[in-house]
Design a protein that fits this description.
Layout lengths: L1 H6 L5 E4 L7 H18 L5 E5 L6 H10 L2 E3 L7 H5 L7 H15 L10 E8 L6 H13 L5 E6 L10 H4 L7 H18 L21 H8 L6 E2 L5 H4 L7 H11 L14 H7 L3 E2 L2
Parallel strand pairs: 1-2, 2-3, 3-4, 4-5, 6-7
Helix pairs in contact: 2-3, 3-5, 6-8
Amino acid sequence: MFLESKRRGEVFGLFLSSAVINNPDYTMDKINTVARLLRYKHDFRGYIHLKIIPGASDAAIEDALSLASAVSLNIETPGGKHFEMLSGKKDYEKDIVRPMKLMSRLTGKGMKLSRVKCTTQFIVGASDETDSEIIDSVFDLYERLRFKRVYFSAYQKGLGDPNIPGERHFLSNPGEHFMREHRLYQVDFLVRKYGFSRKDILVDGSGKLRLDKDPKQLWAERHPDFYPVRINSSDRATLLRVPGFGPDTVKKILAMRRERNISRFEEIGIKGKRLENALRYVIFE
């Protein structure tokens, strides 16, 4: 099915995962066998993303890395105490942390498998974790383990064991978990693309992100002394702190400045609500 879809130009790669069959290594063998057939029997050189099964052996993980373009093992929660509330069958340190460290080491700079990207995912709201705890873990994953991406998935009530925190907690707003997921993705983007540090990500006294305001806007409002930003002379990092300016807009500004001074937002294509917001934070000197 995959190869036929590839021949028709409908897909360019494959994401391969599985529920646990018998045990982690048996499952990994099935996953790796499919990848090996694609690579060596069918000479497929495109994108293959393989799921690492928690508890898999070092040998099974290294085999997957040798076949894949990217691999992922879902961390689920920020720390063992939250993980234990969700699963009594897996050991957080042995089944999650140990293999993630191995993935990091085998794909580190200068290693034979350094081309392989490692990713992971948090389930937001299944346990009783705070946003602050998730954010701390995100920074660890990027800075210490050198993972390429962190993803987030909002927990949906009614799908899990009735005894886990995500089922027991009453939500005044049914969409709260989805908004938390959205805010965490914004934080992730600020970390990866805007150069925000851990202290730049603001949470309240209970470790929660503001659901009613995006974290970049909140930082701007808490740091009025940083503004106004001079649009014709400020560096890239400074321009990226302007609400409404993303990496593409800043790239365009820097390119235009090499030829002339910018005097109006219309020159860089900003309009509507983005324009209204950005006007409060910049000057055209």
